[in-house]
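Morning!

As promised:
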Amino acid sequence: RKEVEQDPGPFNVPEGATVAFNCTYSNSASQSFFWYRQDCRKEPKLLMSVYSSGNEDGRFTAQLNRASQYISLLIRDSKLSDSATYLCVVNDYKLSFGAGTTVTVRA
Amino acid sequence: ETGVTQSPTHLIKTRGQQVTLRCSSQSGHNTVSWYQQALGQGPQFIFQYYREEENGRGNFPPRFSGLQFPNYSSELNVNALELDDSALYLCASSSARGASGGFTEQFFGPGTRLTVL
């Protein structure tokens, strides 16, 4: 079983739509989680950390379900600039990445 | 910009050759991690260096080796290149948290795109 598994998408949504996707992780002892964003042929950049109580950063909401070992990301009011690959990451001193979920926001 | 730099940006090699990739960490960071990202995949952890010592390794063969220097910059060396080594190689710098354990957020460099023919 892979350490981190993600819904690969792609998600193709119109501007203004809400899009949500999940990932699951295998190590029940993992404590630290992130969502990274990666644009085509660029390096990953931290989008947001994921906290147990759930957290928001503007239009982005991250949730963690420890019992089921899954993490979610929800994007509200999608913008064209949100088009990217979103990487689910578990931090156990090293970063374990999912394969990414591709989101395309169309005009 | 993260302050993490990598060189070269692109590289083309042939099977069997050796390659050295370089990474300069962000000022104040003492830890460098290396990742391999194949096309369509997420980055895969190769190894991490902390204060010039290897501090963990992923599932990569011994022909992948590294160094960290006193100024915390780092090199990734790959011997006997194979076609499957073609990928984007990313380094990320961070700092140890000291007594509380763990490491701070990792900041990625722009990567080196290696093509093996």
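The mean pLDDT of chain A is 93.

Hope this helps with the figure draft.
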